[in-house]
Sequence to fold (786 residues):
Amino acid sequence: MKRTMLSGNEAIARGAFEAGVKVASAYPGTPSTEILENIARYSTIDASWAPNEKVALEVGIGASFGGGRALVAMKHVGVNVAADPLFTLSYTGVRGGLVLVTADDPELHSSQNEQDNRNYAKFAKIPMFEPSDSQEALDFTRLALEVSERFDTPVMLRTTTRISHSKSVVEPSEPAAGPSTAGCIEKNPAKFVMLPGNARKRHTVVEERLRSMEEWACHQSFNRIEVGEGKVGVITSGVSYLYAKEILPDADILKLGLVYPLPKQLIRDFASRYDTLYVIEELDPFIEEQVRALGIAVHGKDLLPICGELTPARLNKALTAKDVQNYFVPSEPLPNRPPNMCPGCPHRSIFYSLNRLKAFVTGDIGCYTLGFMEPLSAMDTCICMGASIGNATGMTKVLDPEEARRVVAVIGDSTFLHTGINGLMDMVYNKSTATVLILDNRITAMTGRQENPGSGYTLMGEETTRIDLEALCRSVGVKHVTVIDPYDIEHTRNVIKTEMQRPEVSVVIARRPCMLVKRDPVKRQPSLAVDADKCTGCRACLQLGCPAIEWQPDAGDKGKAVINPLLCCGCGLCSQMCHFDAIGVRHEG
Amino acid sequence: MKDKVTNILISGVGGQGILLASEVLSEVLMLAGYDVKKSEIHGMAQRGGSVVSHIRYGAKVFSSIIPEGQGDILLGFELLETYRYLPLLRQGAKVVANDLKILPPPVTLGREKYPENIPQKIRQAFPDTLVMDGLAVASRAGNPRTANIALLGALSTALPIETSYWHETLQKMVPERFLEVNIKAFDLGRQTAASQI
Fold:
């Protein structure tokens, strides 16, 4: 077929299509999100957003047990959420092939940690493929599904940000010919009911499976040797293979497509040919430790960084101890450009209010984590999806009642439905006094605006039941649920203040769609402008940290604010901040 | 030419259309028969943050990240973000810079200063520099939001690719109702750059 440029994520979606996958489920998370968005374009696959990664995997398991092929996708930390079913799925094995894509994020481009999920393969005793480019991402997705059925095991496919989001040339194939019949019920309790008596027997099956795969993997083309000058040997995989080719173009390379289980005999044979052997891998010494356990001396993390992603420059420095010689470096310090909430973001006034109210904010994962940034500076913790609510409960238990009133949990709509609701049940059940703020912008925004159970639409674009957040909170026993419009700063601040004082659980739902949601009837309003004659340079509007408001230090005596009409979408927050009535609708000319 | 890998960087502020520009560029290079790789970061970094996209092409490309100090061409959508990524370039590299300042939060808050005279500083280090007012060119084309494509037009003068590939790719990637204005912006950007060489 015709050559095409695909990202790793697009290629995985294509691979799932070609392999005849029936069901795909995921929770969005950078850098994995586009896998399901692209799968949703193939009409042969039922693609859906699950409320969280655990549910996504359980849906995939159900599809597999019904006899269909399934793919589930998540970011690295999502596998922590899905780990419970994953470890036992390893014991049951599959009926239809099942592949779990874990998209890791070395360098934490958009994550709260940089855990190396290759460790999950070893921990859960599940084979793991690791592609080096988009063509391999497609090929390995197909391969993973075949291997899953052949060895009766779930298979993991691990990408990293530079694989997920890099585009490279791919030659797609036609979908595999084969039975694409509907699933059917087939009872097999000894295999699918993991009570101790059955599970004990399945554990021995798992160990035997790994042994046979290890031997099999020594003779497969995805684990290949590339012959160079024969002086230096390199064992590598994934994106690190590309960097090894850049920096050591003459080395002999054992490129591993399957990073677990390792082909031990192949590694022994390869290693025996070289005096100098490197294991080149990002993050943990995952391959290195297993190679060392074979009694083979290698260089690895004695030279390479364990933190952050590898790059050609970092690899070169590690191997040659030489820094890059930059031709030009600016001689002055450059101002940073941190990410910021968009102009018109409904989260802005919330964090402004929390800042003014001197709240201690237990935070969560989403765009609103940017409430941490100056000048809003109103997020004090961020651990994982859903953590804000439990964290708030725990804090209030150790503070005296006056201090405890300052504790507010802030969580987005999608994150609340992901794992926040459990924390709220605990709050009610165990009589917490903290306040919960649900920022309901009607979308999963940070990952690029995906639907969720509160948005009223499915991944495939169909209308569906919208979960009623107020009713949900009330149903678990919250007596005080208030809905506010965060575009009204004064009301927002007053409501939060009142609820913080209340000595029992209360939930405030701040409802206003994300400015970037196209479907909602929220239109950009005419942009606003600062009347330079009225502006006194008091800087009150700057406290919002809106990217559309710029400061002109040389205007007037003290400087003046000016609004960038290309960025401003007329939300009106700044005009509410202005004490001098200096901000109004822009008059053309 | 096809033996050597050429390294292009596109930098700017999240939301300026860097993603579309780099998509168009890599598609064009693929159509022209090259091996191409492209890499950038999505997600959090895009929310008004500093963004850089790497595009590499040649007979065979391995790493999608450009080795530091080996950039051949930098297309900057904003002056500070052009200045910031100059250390990635080799001596004698070509720079196409959009003559636009977007003040970052530390500057709008009055805590840090936006560097002065960036175009002159770039030219001093890289004589083969073109500074173009992309917004003005895009406005002449009929829509200020096509500045990214106008700048791509300027960049195209530095690449050995026929115009037909560019038009074909824009047709494929730009929604139909915006196609005409984008092609016009591309052509105007290309002409503007050609007339300044």
